[in-house]
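Milestone 3.1: sequence recovery, worked example.
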């Protein structure tokens, strides 16, 4: 089944070339079913790239999904045109009375800032609070995961000695959780961050459980025991070239970044990186949509207010 997106969203052309079934709003209006309502709070600078990455993963189920995008109006987006935001994104004030089956909160390249110094922190806190009563299940990614753990559980991030970047092997710790159904014992996933969250702090939160982690990269996936929130520290949504693009971007800035670990064959930047995490990415997002959202969300989303 397709994902439903605004008719002229540029990401549609990319997805159609990949033979991904995308349905525009006009066609979807004629289908007499209750699709899942998914909201994506896109905090990444290059929003169009993140749109493609996430829509690609959300399309990999037999469910019909209505996807909407949200941006922070308290932040000046320098890498995305105002026209794109006005056409395809909502401000929070426009959707705050609506209800959603699922919410995805992306990462953002601001992890070195204290949360309170982020220019849209006040607005994001309002969205976090709103999600408790207007969203059935929320999937947080990287900085979005750290921010969510800080807001909902008072778990702070800590600064790493150097940027963690590369592809790392992870162990599934709780295969009985439905979001990890079908996973092998180990899987690969990208990380790209300057900060982390301590396992010992997660252990103090009685409603959280560590679901997957890496000996090298640390925590990867944390779940709320009621399936209403998940926190992924890595970037399974990344494309093959994303870490390479970030590496070259940092070089141009004069940062002298570390070479992403386990990424370039023979550590040779002229060689094409191997793509070995998209199977896990597709499975994780499909499981989230199917087990955490579709099979549990109320048909009448206004019943979320009764929880």
């Amino acid at each position: 089944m397709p994902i439903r997106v605004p008719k002229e969203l540029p990401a549609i052309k990319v997805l159609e070339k990949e033979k991904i079934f995308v349905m525009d709003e006009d066609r979807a209006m004629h289908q007499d079913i209750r699709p899942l309502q998914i909201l994506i709070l896109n905090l990444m600078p290059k929003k169009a790239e993140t749109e493609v990455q996430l829509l690609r993963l959300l399309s990999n189920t037999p469910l019909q999904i209505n996807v909407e995008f949200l941006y922070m109006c308290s932040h000046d987006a320098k890498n995305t045109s105002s026209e794109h935001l006005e056409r395809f994104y909502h401000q929070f004030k426009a959707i705050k009375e609506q209800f959603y089956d699922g919410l995805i909160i992306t990462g953002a390249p601001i992890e070195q800032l204290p949360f309170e110094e982020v220019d849209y922190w006040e607005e994001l806190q309002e969205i976090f609070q709103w999600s408790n009563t207007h969203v059935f299940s929320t999937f947080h990614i990287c900085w979005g995961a750290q921010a969510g753990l800080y807001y909902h559980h008072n778990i702070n991030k800590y600064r790493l000695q150097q940027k963690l970047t590369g592809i790392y092997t992870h162990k599934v710790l709780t295969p009985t959780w439905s979001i990890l159904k079908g996973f092998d014992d180990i899987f690969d996933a990208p990380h790209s961050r300057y900060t982390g969250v301590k396992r010992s702090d997660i252990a103090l939160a009685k409603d959280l459980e560590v679901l997957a982690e890496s000996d090298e990269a640390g925590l990867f996936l944390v779940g709320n025991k009621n399936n209403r929130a998940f926190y992924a520290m890595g970037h399974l949504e990344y494309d093959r070239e994303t870490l390479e693009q970030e590496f070259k971007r940092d070089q141009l800035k004069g940062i002298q970044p570390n070479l992403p670990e386990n990424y370039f064959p023979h550590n040779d930047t002229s060689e094409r990186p191997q793509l070995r995490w998209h199977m896990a990415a597709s499975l994780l997002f499909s499981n989230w949509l199917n087990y955490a959202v579709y099979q549990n969300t109320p048909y009448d989303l206004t019943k979320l207010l009764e929880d």
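The domain at 3-240+276-306 is CATH 3.40.50.880 (Rossmann fold). Residues 278-294 form the longest helix (17 residues).
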